[in-house]
Amino acid sequence: MNERIQTQFMVMSFSHKNAAIDIREKLNFATEQIVPFLQKICASEAIKEAILLCTCNRVEIYTSILDRRIARDHIYQCLTQEKQISLESLQDIVHIYLNQYAIYHIFCVASSLDSLVVGETQITGQLKVAYKLSYDHALCSKDMTRLMHFAFKCAAHVRAHTDISSNSVSVASAAVNMAEQKLQEKGESLDSVEVLLIGSGEMGRLVAKHLSNHQAKITLLNRSEHNAQNLAQEIKANIPTYPIVVKPYETLRESLKTHRVVFVATAAKDYVIKSDMIVPHHDRRLYFDLSVPRNIETMAIPHTEIYSVDDLQEIVDQNKTSRQESAKVGLKIVDQFTADFFKWLQTLSIDPIIKQMRYLAKQSAMKELERAIKKGYLPQEYEKNVEKILHGAFNTFLHQPTMRLRQASENPQGDPIIEATKNIFDISDDVVMLNGYKCEKDTTIY
Q1: Which CATH architecture has domain 171-316?
Q2: Is the pTM of this model over 0.85?
Q3: Burial class (CB in 10 A: 0-12, 13-18, 19+), 82
């Protein structure tokens, strides 16, 4: 059986749609853990290539496989061993997508149509980073490169032909907007309070950017004060007089006493803010934890409201309403790209089959022509003219079958026809795979 028929695509998804944040915390992978885990996955003969996408809202494993049952069970086993989560717990929540459904899902993810905040701008870049990490460690090659190539084209097309990313919203901006709404309920706003921001990574940078748009006064803490200073300079480069102050990380306890609005966005694997760090108070406190695993310990303290990424539903609902029409258009684009991907993928194998059929016909014709001349049935001087006649004859004969084969290759249900043709003409898989696919590794972040 050739590679096109054997290879299937599978997605195992744990996202905000089916897995609560406490499960996503357990399933979360630090960057240095991803490659060893993918190596374990790809150790199975049933799994050819794999990519792991790990964000605050999803942990998803994208694979090209040879046997769906063996591949699925092997990934379950790897997850249960790595994360100490029972098989039953994983099976209860996982979403598994196969083939066309897997491709459709991945294209939706790349186009931010499956995001908690539809239209958010981070996910395409995160997927590119995940692909590059896997590619650079030889954990994915032809199958997933083909797929990612189309996914990024699809994402670009959705952005170019819809308004889904206009006034783009991210988890960071949704959290900042929620903070503004919560303050306005009491007649306040972000520009009237001092905000404590803990973390200066990508999420922290986005939070700082959106806070600056609201003219909030920011106190920035980070374990690396150098990185915090760099972020402060980045913000001040746009607004030289902007009130952002960097303090040593060791001042965290004291800063919590004086700030009523706190955003936490770090890569820490444990709690950054614990219950014993909070002193009793009478003012309303708003804490926004944008980290997975969570950085704020679950606690019940009077006048203190703690929000995680899964608590942004108010802003998410507003976002869905405003982008509903764009999302509908985007999903139609994804649907078309999914169909185009499979059509294109199938044509990769049909061209060498057609070429081999023509080659076999020509070889048979030339063999009979040579025999006729040797036997004296045909004068030598007629060889070229007869060769032209035979060439026209077998091309005419093969025209209709090759047209039908091309039509069959554009339909997923055409596989039996193509396989039957290969058997009839005794065309081996080695011949089919001579038509190697080449795709430039695309790592540019849109």
Answers
A1: 3-Layer(aba) Sandwich (3.40)
A2: no
A3: middle
How deeply is 191 buried, as exposed, middle or buried, from its count of CB atoms within 10 A (0-12, 13-18, 19+)?
A: middle
Q: Range(s) for CATH 3.40.50.720 in the chain?
A: 171-316
One-letter-per-residue 3-state SS of 246-304: ECCHHHHHHHHHHCCEEEECCCCCCCCECHHHCCCCCCCEEEEECCCCCCECCCCCCCE
| Residue 78: active-site member | no
Q: Which residue has the tokens 């590679």?
A: 3
**CATH code of the domain occupying 3-168:** 3.30.460.30
Give the pair of three-digit tokens for residue 371: 């025999």
Which of 42, 56, 108, 140 is labelled catalytic?
A: 56
- Give 240's contacts (C-beta < 8 A, 6+ positions apart): none
Tens of pLDDT, residues 233-267: 988 887 878 889 999 999 999 999 999 999 999 98
All CATH 3.30.460.30 domain ranges in the chain, comma separated? 3-168
**Tokens 């081996």 correspond to what residue?**
428
